[in-house]
Write a sequence for this structure.
């Protein structure tokens, strides 16, 4: 199973979500893999140092991440697609209308963009993502198992 996480620049939220999901899936024995993409990617930038640090606190190593843009091939190949905000979800639905049935937001609320914020801001956003990813992994484990 492939789970796609999408944010804006693919340097903060979605890499943290994919990394945390991969760690949670491994711990739960779930045959699933998280990947991440962005809607407005400027180039193959690494995850921000703050995101790397925040994710590491949850056992996720995203230090090798490089930003990549959301594309139709990746969207079509994903079993589930999770956006960080309602705005991301709407943009994804416009870009990939054939994939709407497998799209949702990661949380019941918009996960704020920490870009440019302090480490404390990143840590709080990562905590929100971790909570949502843990719940997602548990749901997928029940569906898969």
């Amino acid at each position: 199973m492939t789970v796609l996480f999408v944010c804006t620049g693919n340097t903060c939220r979605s890499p943290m979500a994919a990394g945390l999901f991969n760690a949670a899936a491994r711990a739960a024995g779930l045959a699933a893999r998280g990947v991440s993409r962005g809607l407005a990617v400027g180039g193959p930038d690494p995850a921000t140092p703050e995101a790397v640090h925040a994710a590491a606190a949850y056992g996720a190593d995203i230090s090798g991440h490089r930003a990549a843009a959301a594309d139709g091939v990746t969207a079509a190949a994903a079993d589930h697609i999770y956006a960080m905000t309602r705005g991301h979800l709407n943009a994804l639905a416009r870009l990939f209308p054939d994939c709407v049935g497998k799209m949702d937001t990661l949380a019941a609320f918009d996960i704020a963009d920490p870009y440019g914020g302090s480490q404390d801001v990143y840590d709080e956003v990562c905590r929100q993502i971790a909570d949502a990813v843990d719940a997602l992994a548990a749901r997928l484990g029940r569906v898969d198992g």
Notes: The chain has one domain: 2-139. The radius of gyration is 14 Å. The beta strands are 2-7, 33-38, 80-83, 103-105.
